Structure prediction request, 350 residues.
Amino acid sequence: MIDPKRLTQWSKASGCGCKIEPKYLHQIIKDIKIHQSDDINLLIGSEHSDDAVVYALNDTEALVCTTDFFTPIVDDAFTFGQIAAANALSDIYAMGANPLVALSVLGWPVERLGTDSAQEVLRGAQHSCKTAGIVLAGGHSIETSEPFFGLTVNGRVKRNAMCSNNSLCDGDLVFITKPIGTGIYAKAFKHEKLAEEHYKLWIAQLVKLNRIGSILVSQGLVNAITDVTGFGLGGHLLEMLKPGTFSAHINLSAVPVLPDVFQYAAISGYPDALFKNWNAIAPFINDATTNHKNKAFSLFADPQTNGGLLCTVTPDNEQLFINCCKNEDQQVWKLGRIFASDTVQIEITD
Prediction:
């Protein structure tokens, strides 16, 4: 019997782990991309799986638009709203933009969960929006059998200062701003195996805004940037590589990991989405690790919710990039390097 007090028991998957599997998503949207070139003001659409669309307002400014929603990743309604809002706002920051206004997207089984919990979700989202300096101005709701929540967010960016996920360069260094493991933690939490100290650490990461993205882009410190969410580190890195003739060399030991992730995977198992993600990226993985096959599988395919920003940086800007992150109290880890290649690959070494 479902416990009405545990929101995570009302959904099959949690957070960004509920995304449609990549192979099905490509089939769904493939025809939509064909007609995007019909509008010359659409500067960035979905052709390269970027984080948001960018639409020209005039010669100097552009509107950045995104929508993102998912099923509960935690049981506390207020915290769920915070996380979902932070995750949606991340798409705006990942384009180098600043958010302007947000609308809510709510699906709720009102007769089973009541209205108080839904109100708490909105209050949590309102808190994240206030932290971002914007208003949650309205939205739309429907009654559903499975709860979900998220935002549509509009932002603004200077056309000469925006950034995409595929503008990387040969020799770029690869950095990430948050540890990997939120999907495995979510599975452990759903099975009531996550320790209290790790729960607090997990929540702190999930609600943290990725506003560092707009700062890094505005200062010209990154060549390409994206946020790591439901398709995992490997999936989102591949989205950066695919449009060009580039590959990435990633040092497995350099990938930051939340504490005891592999122990939790052994106890509670892996999220379903992790296997789907791995199936999508496996053909592009060149794994030279010797004794860490399961570690690579976990770190590159684990679905993240409001994960870190994946950035590529010109070596000449490395110290400026690190200094900027330090000044903004933002941790950052160097994972590897981008290199020109005839084929798209992710080379993983110990």
